[in-house]
Amino acid sequence: MIGKISGRLEYRSTDHVMIDVRGIGYLVYVSERTLAAMPQVGEAVALYTELLVREDLLQLFGFTSLVEKEWHRLLLSVQGVGAKASLAILGALGPEGVGRAITLGDWNAVKAARGIGPKTAQRVVLELKDKAPNVMALGGSLSMAQGTVAPVVDADDDVVIETPKATSSVPVRNFAAAQSEALSALTNLGYNPSEAARGVAQAAMDTPDVETPDLIRAALRLLAPKG
């Protein structure tokens, strides 16, 4: 299984890129959001990948983060959601947006993705709502584990395929980590995972890019009994 591919961007199309690795071109299908984040043709690039294996087809799908890859895997588990639909949802919302929409039951946000009808959007929210807290909790650790996605270049200026490994360096603080820590804090205070996830997701939407303590306080205010 190819967990990550590193090489040089050979060309980019509307839904995929070709990455040259030691003279072999790998077609990697990506979301619009990932495509927009790609460097210029000829520059080094690295993506986490998922290999789809069918009787008559092998396809690589690429992601800029392990959290995005995890959401892709879960979206594919929903009846009626194929790889193309999953990339459309991730392209429209991004991994954190997918988590918020599912946690808050906002199927209209999911429906905004190209080619996603209301029934499919509702099914995504219904089938994944209980799994969303786990992905939110994983978000910080996955972000820390992946570190900087950078290709490995040998002495002959060739680029090799590698599988992602955890890094021991100090991670850069990010919003995914803040959400994960806030969710852990709320569950430690006695909120059940689904309830805590709703509070954190709503707080994250209302006050983006805040540090963990502020996110916890905002979520607690949202979860406080009314009246």
> Residue ranges: pLDDT <50 for 5 or more in a row?
147-156, 158-173
Radius of gyration: 19 Å
Biggest β-sheet description: 5 strands, mixed, barrel
Report how far the terminal alpha carbons are from each other: 54 Å
CATH fold field value of the domain at 66-133: DNA polymerase, domain 1
Helix content: 40-55%
CATH architecture name of the domain at 66-133 = Orthogonal Bundle
Q: What overall form do the CA principal axes indicate? A: globular
Q: How many beta-strand elements?
A: 5
Oligomer: single chain
Quote the average pLDDT.
Answer: 81
- The CATH superfamily name of the domain at 66-133 is 5' to 3' exonuclease, C-terminal subdomain
Structural classification: alpha+beta
Number of helices: 9
Q: How large a portion of the residues is in β-strands, by DSSP E?
A: 15-25%
Give the strand line-up of the largest sheet: 1-2-3-5-4
Given this structure, which CATH class of the domain at 66-133 is correct? Answer: Mainly Alpha
- What is the helix/strand order? EEEHEEHHHHHHHH
Region (Domain I): 1-64
Family: Belongs to the RuvA family.
Protein name: Holliday junction branch migration complex subunit RuvA
GO cellular component, one term: Holliday junction resolvase complex
Short description:
Keywords: ATP-binding, Cytoplasm, DNA damage, DNA recombination, DNA repair, DNA-binding, Helicase, Hydrolase, Nucleotide-binding. This protein is an alpha+beta fold and 227 residues long. It is 48% helix and 17% strand.
